[in-house]
Design a protein that fits this description.
Oligomer: single chain
Number of helices: 6
CATH topology of one domain: NADH Oxidase
CATH superfamily of one domain: NADH Oxidase
Structural class: alpha+beta
Order of helices and strands: HEHEHHEHEHE
């Protein structure tokens, strides 16, 4: 697949099946992620992989977050939280490993760099014939989840990237008129 086709055709795949990406696929995926723009060469990224029992542990962490938010939470909500990571055979948490007080590289640039790494993971997965979905939601911002993942005070979760074999068809993303998004100053 050529680069322009990849960029024009990549779409999220919500239905994912096993097996998870293999070692060679993961190496290619991470090599792509590590090419994200990186002002100051801070390498402001960290990745946490979840497979097998790790997915269940992540689900338990989500349930713990629900309980901390509401000690009277019902069992159905806790069960739903536990199932969320099980929607794919692998989840990669993409963390912005922020170095504070770097005058030439503000926090926002470091977080965006981690976002670029997450996007590269999606592109690499698509190029390899895998399915991928970028998810965030409330757990990405939850202090219980942050603590459970051992994140530092300055760290941010920018994505939970779900990876696996495509379990359905790629639905084409709606085309947009470029003119709706581009302003010209000449």
């Amino acid at each position: 697949m050529d680069a322009m086709t990849l960029l024009h055709e990549r779409s999220s795949m919500g239905k994912l099946m096993g097996p998870p990406p293999g070692p060679e696929q993961l190496e290619a995926i991470y090599r792509a992620a590590l090419r994200a723009p990186d002002h100051g060469e801070l390498r402001p990224w960290r990745f946490i992989e979840f497979t097998g029992e790790g997915l269940e542990r992540l689900g338990e962490l989500y349930a713990e977050a629900e309980f901390h938010a509401d000690p009277h939470v019902d069992d159905a909500t806790l069960a739903a939280a536990r199932k969320k990571p099980l929607r794919a055979p692998m989840v990669i948490a993409v963390i912005a490993k922020v170095t504070p007080d770097v005058a030439k590289v503000p926090r926002v640039e470091q977080v965006i760099s981690a976002g670029c790494a997450a996007h590269a993971i999606l592109l690499a997965a698509h190029a390899l014939g895998l399915g991928a979905m970028w998810r965030s939601g409330k757990y990405a911002f939850d202090p219980t989840v942050h603590k459970g993942l051992g994140l530092g005070e300055e760290d941010e979760i920018v994505a939970f990237v779900y990876l696996g074999q495509p379990g359905g068809r790629h639905r084409p993303v709606a085309e947009h008129r470029i003119s709706d998004f581009v302003e010209h100053w000449s």
